[in-house]
Amino acid sequence: MKKVINIALPLLSALVLMACVGEVKEKLKTAKEGVSNASTLVKEAQKASSRVEKLREAVPLTNEQLKAWLPENLDGMERTGFKVGQAGMYKVNSVEGTYKASEEKKKFNVMVIDGAGPTGSMMSASYGLLGNFEMESEDEYEHQQTVEVGGIKAQQTYKKKLNDTQLLFAYRERFLVTVNATDINVAETWELTEKLNLGALAELAE
């Protein structure tokens, strides 16, 4: 019995020590990630200030230009509605389109705000920071994370049980894009977003 105790005590002590070390490592890792994110945020904020000044003087696209860019069809999904003009109280030019697949629950909604002008430039800076703040969280209902797809950094949220996807990102440091896809998975949402041809919109602003 004494031998058992002599063996068990050091073993127990070792396990407790390992647990403590593991806990310390995890806390250090969390702290390091927090410092890294904070440093990234500061650096990106400094970069954003110069972009804000540039966009503040830029001329926003007109309603006619925004409407002409918005496709009438998107990969077989018909456009069932659109809005163009100033976005609510923010007084920035924007365009929104809704697409639906016939006889399906699928719905794709995209809203693009032109980040040019005094107010738009501030909004553009905030959207740009979203994509550079590395994060990830997941539970039984949704998975949210920072991703980079096709050179675009975005905040991506996927609702598992509903099969809904949301994307938030700044395109070419000017256009603020919000995508809400109903009954569409992450991969297909990105495919549809690519087919919007945001590059053509950016060319209008050059």
Give descriptors for this structure:
206 residues; disordered N terminus; alpha+beta; globular; 9-stranded antiparallel sheet
Q: Helices and strands in order, then pairings?
A:
Blueprint: H1 2-56, H2 63-69, E1 73-74, E2 77-86, E3 93-100, E4 107-114, H3 118-132, E5 136-138, E6 142-149, E7 152-159, E8 164-171, E9 175-182, H4 186-195, H5 198-204
Antiparallel strand pairs: 1-2, 2-3, 3-4, 4-9, 5-6, 6-7, 7-8, 8-9
Helix pairs in contact: 1-3
* Estimated radius of gyration: 24 Å
Number of helical regions: 5
What string gives the helices and strands in order? HHEEEEHEEEEEHH
Any low-confidence stretches, pLDDT <50, length ≥5? 1-25
Q: Could you tell me the mean pLDDT?
A: 79
Strand order of the largest sheet: 1-2-3-4-9-8-7-6-5
End-to-end separation in angstroms reads: 84 Å
Structural class: alpha+beta
Shape: globular
Q: Helicity level, as a percent range? A: 40-55%
Largest sheet, in brief, is: 9 strands, antiparallel
Strand content: 25-35%
**How many β-strand runs?**
9
Structure description:
The protein is α+β, with helices and mostly antiparallel strands and 206 residues long. 46% of the residues lie in helices and 31% in strands. The protein is built from five helices and nine strands; from the N terminus they run H-H-E-E-E-E-H-E-E-E-E-E-H-H. The chain has a nine-stranded antiparallel β-sheet with strand order 1-2-3-4-9-8-7-6-5, with helices on both faces. A hairpin with a 6-residue loop joins strand 2 and strand 3. Helix 1 (2-56) runs antiparallel to helix 3 (118-132). It is globular. The chain starts with a helix and ends with a helix. Mean pLDDT is 79; it is low at 1-25.
